[in-house]
Structure prediction request, 307 residues.
Amino acid sequence: MFSAPSVVTVLHAGDNDLVQLKRRGFGFAALFDTSIAARFLGAKALGLDVLLQTYLGVELPPSRQRDDWSRRPLSEAQRRYAESDVLHLFALKARLTEELERIGRLAWVEEECAALAAQPAVERIVDPNAFARLKGARELPPRKLAILHELYELREQLARSADRPPFKILAEETVVRLAQEPPVDAAALAAVPGCTPKVIGRWGEAVLAAIARGRAVPETALPVLERTPRPRIPGIAARRIEALRQWRTEAAPRFGLEPGLLLPNRLITTVALAAPRDAGALAMLDGVRRWRAETFGAEIVAALAAP
Prediction:
């Protein structure tokens, strides 16, 4: 149904949902994301509750995000909350479309949504050094890094077994704290922020076992983190990057758009390195989009020429 050309799928901030669905074989012919639409209207707050209140005068039921949604049966309050996430999306789409047409930006949103629909789902790559990206990991000595690695792997395993996101098992900050000052028993574990009685009751023994495995790693097998050098950017390209950032800062208020929407950081380096000489060449760069090149192309090319 979703891949039928006549069907427009309406969702709100659907990036993560689409990744999961595409990985499971779903295809989408057309999308309308109300969060993207609101960004092009210059909305400062993009939460569904705020948009519904602003454009439809609808107030959502109290949040149930902290509930345990694996428990059955769902309560009536949970059912109402879940329904409210989609109940008003068609009406919201209609109101946002009216506003976008009024200011001439509907085609911009349609192009962004088309790109989102066509974007392939990136397969999850297992990175053996993913634990090193946790905040604070690179400050740890090798032995504590080994403990962090064991705790990270345990968290991944528990998350898969429980079919829950890893942060619902242990927060990243908690994992790093456990590696910084590794507890030796349940009493010491209870003193670590984030290790609640519920966490200790469910996974306390497994956490202590993971810490013990980290302590037992031979000296010759301790992890060593290599620093990846940043790619060198030529001086002229660096000056173009600065010029584009300056242009973006000045242009964003003029158009009532956030700077990251006007020209995302991921595009700035691409554009600076390519240094297109006209709007047509700019439009050919991957990810630039037609609406951006047609509306701001002349200004972007002028900014590139300034350095």
